[in-house]
């Protein structure tokens, strides 16, 4: 590997003539665009942050990605990888120009290996497509982030979480092996189809959640499980969110293995109802807990649901509405899934996905409600009660740009400060990217940030890969 | 952080006078030993590799560890951390002299937090003590490596696996947060009591399995689960190991959630029987699969065991002996647990813990049997059929030192070569340390090793922490 002493941060602008070499790496000139590049390629799903892009490249193989990176390394060109661009924190924004590397054409399902219960995919495969593919074959990929049009590469890069994390864990727990291209263009293989791995430093786990700052994932071996045969849900109304959250903590001790434990305050349910044209029972409830259960035997699932019922009723639930038929269950989950969109239908919002120790969830939300009252900025919360991962929509309303910037900053400071004080972290599943950098920086030990930077410097000595994200 | 340009590899010998500063860091002079240091402190559990040690230090707090590392960093003194010294690959051998840092006095259980289902412990707590502590309180720490006298810090440093990995995963999956001292002496906190974490590069996951090469773990937040109320086992004899392993692959597809799936060939069971003074049924079987099941309801556990019975009988099991009473179950597991000692009672042996994709387990063992026949070196295999993690004892027998060195090298080359060819890795749970370095080096992409070294260089620029291990 060549290592020239070029100061990081000085990047070559990619002029048209300069691109000639790239045409020998990317076989089809159609897959290099230098003009008429759509705006979505220089931003993320929220579109608030914008970068610039000299050339948009669509590689179709690990070799092409490696070729591009070798070229970029040699020439000090900045590269920003992206999948479907569903990111919410600016991780895909090409802040320093250069090349945007769109991996969406690398969307093949390479191999389903039923013996080892693994599926090998390229990073551009969409979550929805992967889920459909494996479920049609009696298998199951448990991670279930709300955004199904995200790519698997993107899910891995942010260590996406989702609804089923309570029982099944997060994306990290389903990555068995990764092929990745390092900033130097070197290709590495980490992990594999094996289950256990104590063979040196875990580059795999370092890459997971690194938001494309250390390497570009070009192939993923994912763990599958047999598809659970029975699924059931329950909607549990409470007269206060605090009672609901306390009930969840007791429920987790009952060992009834819920797949998902979500909470929704009444005010967000009201938006969801309006948005989806449905209505929830118990409109007088101030909060709902939404549960689901799955398993391979109906008896086991029913028995778990019944034990859950007994537990939450003891803890003060107003009712326990079993959702047995798939249609009702799907409808309720659709409302849950549409909450962000329901909020956005009313106003621009800034998403927060802090995570606190599960027994601090109610304290955090109480604090958010206090901030809402004191600041006049509407804060809508819902999320994963089973793991303390709270989604908070900070609602812009009618504010002009200046007022919004000021109010948002003030609210965010308080919110992230509180999360930190409660032993929480900045992000449970969205990542840090650009937009959460200041809060992450403030909430995190300088020694931790310094160590992260040292690792970045070590693997990307020219700072050419997605520079400026996270730290 | 000071960073002087000292060439890594040039270490200061710790003379007595030079230690004065250390006495101001470690409050009690009794906790610094420079004379009469027992031999166990310069080796590992196998005692085959030996280092040297100028001073043995027993810190009692993160602050003391930090103080020692700052001093060592400033003076370019090599530091080798250790727990109970049960390591099998030389990770605790102080190859470059200097300080041995024994963390066994840091053995407090700091906090049990039942709300978040976490226990916070110092790294010197023994696995056996942790298991007993939480189980007495109705809770459960699932990782279950064979060696119960290992420390939790050691378990994390090798990402120890164990019997229950099939259902519950490995040590990595139960580490929520870590406090660690970096080679510079800086203290970092990563993770916490939170369940999800997408907040920057995962230093936590990088430290797990790093064998004390990147930092010294000084506090661990571990995930617990409620203790399963029912446990049951089954001993399943087969007429060939291949039939047994194929049955396991089918069994995993049945979704009956076994806690453990172990395999034992007849020849190792015979040693275990003799060693423990018991006898297994079906002495004519050439292999056994040992299963266990647990859960919170007896009906569920029984139903899973019954479905497992049907599955393995369909796959050609000779019988399915349900182990219902705890005594019989414990006795059979004791034999399984004593296999290494049973082998060692007969001869010195070199342990292998390769991991292959689960459907390659039978191929790997068939190859090991072939190597045994061709080389005349006895190879005894058993291990974790549910995750492809094969333990192989390479038996010395009556060989003199020279013949043993030669034969061992030849056998190991073939064994590790085959594992690599089958898509396997060098270690599933023991780590690489010193003794597996040559095989790891040979089986691993140079780019992967280079990236690991870059990370090591970045976090330990003076190479003062457990230098020479892994890579």
TrEMBL record, chains A, B:
The keyword Oxidoreductase applies. It comes from the Bacteria. Residues 49-227 form the FAD-binding PCMH-type domain. Its cofactor is FAD. GO terms for molecular function: FAD binding; oxidoreductase activity. InterPro entries: FAD-bd_oxidored_4_C, FAD-bd_PCMH, FAD-bd_PCMH-like_sf, FAD-bd_PCMH_sub2, FAD-linked_Oxase-like_C, FAD-linked_OxidoTrans_Type4, Oxid_FAD_bind_N, Vanillyl_alc_oxidase_C-sub2. The keyword Oxidoreductase applies. Keywords: FAD, Flavoprotein, Oxidoreductase. This is 2-hydroxy-acid oxidase.
């Amino acid at each position: 590997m060549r290592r020239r002493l070029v100061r990081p941060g000085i990047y070559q602008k990619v002029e048209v003539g300069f691109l000639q070499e790239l045409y020998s790496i990317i076989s089809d000139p159609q897959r290099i665009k230098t003009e008429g590049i759509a705006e979505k390629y220089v931003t993320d799903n929220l579109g608030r942050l914008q970068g610039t892009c000299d050339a948009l490249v669509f590689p179709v193989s690990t070799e092409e990605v490696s070729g591009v990176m070798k070229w970029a390394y040699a020439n000090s060109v900045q590269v920003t990888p992206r999948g479907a661009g569903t990111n919410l924190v600016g991780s895909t924004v090409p802040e320093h120009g250069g090349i945007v590397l769109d991996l969406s054409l690398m969307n093949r399902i390479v191999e389903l290996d039923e013996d080892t219960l693994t599926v090998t995919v390229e990073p551009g495969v969409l979550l929805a497509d992967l889920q459909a593919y494996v479920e049609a074959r009696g298998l199951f990929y448990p991670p279930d982030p709300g955004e199904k049009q995200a790519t698997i590469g993107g899910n891995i890069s942010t260590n996406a979480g989702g609804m089923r994390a309570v029982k099944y864990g997060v994306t990290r727990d389903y990555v068995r092996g990764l092929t990745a291209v390092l900033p130097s263009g070197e290709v590495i293989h980490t992990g594999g189809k094996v289950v256990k791995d104590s063979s040196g430093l875990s580059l795999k786990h370092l890459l997971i959640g690194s938001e494309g700052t250390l390497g570009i994932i070009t192939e993923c071996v994912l763990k599958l499980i047999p598809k659970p045969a029975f699924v059931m849900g329950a909607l549990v109304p409470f007269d206060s969110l605090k009672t609901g959250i306390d009930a969840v903590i007791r429920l987790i001790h009952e060992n009834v293995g819920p797949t998902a434990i979500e909470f929704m305050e009444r005010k967000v349910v009201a938006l969801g109802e309006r948005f989806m044209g449905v209505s929830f029972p118990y409109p007088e409830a101030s909060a709902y807990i939404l549960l689901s259960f799955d398993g391979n035997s109906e008896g086991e699932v029913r028995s778990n649901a019944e034990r859950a019922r007994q537990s939450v009723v003891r803890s003060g639930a107003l009712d326990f509405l079993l959702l047995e038929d798939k249609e009702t269950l799907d409808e309720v989950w659709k409302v849950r899934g549409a909450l962000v969109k329901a909020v956005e239908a009313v106003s621009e919002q800034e998403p927060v996905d802090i995570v606190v120790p599960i027994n601090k969830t109610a304290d955090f939300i109480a604090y958010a409600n206090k901030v809402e009252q004191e600041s006049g900025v509407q804060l809508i919360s819902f999320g994963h009660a089973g793991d303390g991962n709270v989604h908070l929509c900070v609602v812009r309303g009618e504010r002009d740009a200046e007022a919004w910037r000021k109010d948002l900053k003030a609210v965010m400071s308080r919110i992230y400060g509180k999360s930190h004080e409660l032993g929480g972290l900045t992000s449970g599943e969205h990542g840090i990217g650009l937009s959460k950098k200041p809060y992450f920086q403030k909430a995190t030990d300088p020694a931790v940030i310094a160590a992260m930077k040292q690792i970045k410097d070590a693997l990307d000595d020219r700072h050419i890969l997605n520079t400026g994200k996270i730290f």
